[in-house]
Amino acid sequence: MIRWLLWLLAGALLGGIVHLVAVLILPRTATQDAYSRLSPIAPVNAVAALPQPTPQSEVMPFMDPAFASAVCRYDLDSGPIKLTVPISPAYTSVSFYTRRGVAYYAINDRSAGRRQIELQLMTAAQRADLPEEEDVTAADRLIVESPSGTGLIVMRALAPEPGLMPVAQAALSRATCKPEPPTTDR
User: pTM of this prediction?
Assistant: First the structure.
């Protein structure tokens, strides 16, 4: 009887190890991640509106039909990018993800405190190369450091009523995500 319990325990332990390894490895080997699925509709370093989700199809999983969504696939190899997102009347949020889908920063209109969310996205090395400007404070310039050179920026605007969806979509259509021009020394 003890022998059967040991075999059962060993089998459960081995099954648990195999399950854990599979869960940890599968996201890294998946070929149809969000970044890849968005490549046909979203050019690099440009904002593209996402189609509204339907019960039969959605570009990304778990999309909320009450939100208008737009995405920017970024590539920081050519330099930092500047992101500008106008605030919609109800609620606006911006989330940053690495190429592998790890969320590393988020901001919404309440925490931005302005009429638009405006920030610079760059790698740690690019930020280290920035010249120190004495007259520019942290409140004047929001800089987000990306842990990877490529990734996704997802922008969402709430339409509290179905009739307000065009207003939310119009706010996101004015969003920009473009490479920043090189700074010149004074």
Answer: 0.80
